[in-house]
Amino acid sequence: MGNMGKMFIVLGIIFITIGLVWSLFGKLPGDITIKKDNFSFHFPIMTSIVVSIILSFIMFILGKFR
After folding, report:
1. String of b and e for 12-42 (b: at least 16 CB within 10 Å)?
2. How far is it, in rounded angstroms, from Cα 24 to Cα 18?
3. Sign of the C-alpha dihedral, residues 15, 19, 25, 26?
4. Which of 2, 8, 53, 54 lies 20 to 30 A from 28 at CA?
5. Residue 65 phi, psi dihedral angles, 5° rounding
6. Nearest-angstrom CA–CA distance, 27 and 23
7. What is residue 39's predicted lDDT score, i.e. its pLDDT?
8. What is the pLDDT at residue 2?
């Protein structure tokens, strides 16, 4: 049960981090948005890169405590 508890803590940290990044930055410069008549497409490439860097850092820190 100890490993499952750690997994839920890590998942919680991940979701909190994603929520904070999304609420603080929202749409970053570099995110791709295409709007046509009845079609819109949004690809958050910079947001994805920032979230990836933050999650990699969190996983690195958590790996140091193992």
Report:
1. eeeeeeeeebeeeeeeeeeeeeeeeeeeeee
2. 10
3. positive
4. 8
5. -85, 0
6. 9
7. 92
8. 66
- 32 has which bridge partners? 43
- pLDDT attached to residue 29: 78
Rounded Cα distance, 54 and 27, in Å = 16
DSSP bridge partners of 31: 29
pLDDT averages per 10-residue partition of the chain, 66 residues: 75 81 72 89 84 82 74
* 46: its two tokens: 């910079």
The angle, 0 to 180 degrees and rounded to 10, between the axes of the packed helices 45-64 and 2-25 is: 150
Q: Which pLDDT score, from 0 to 100, does residue 18 have?
A: 75
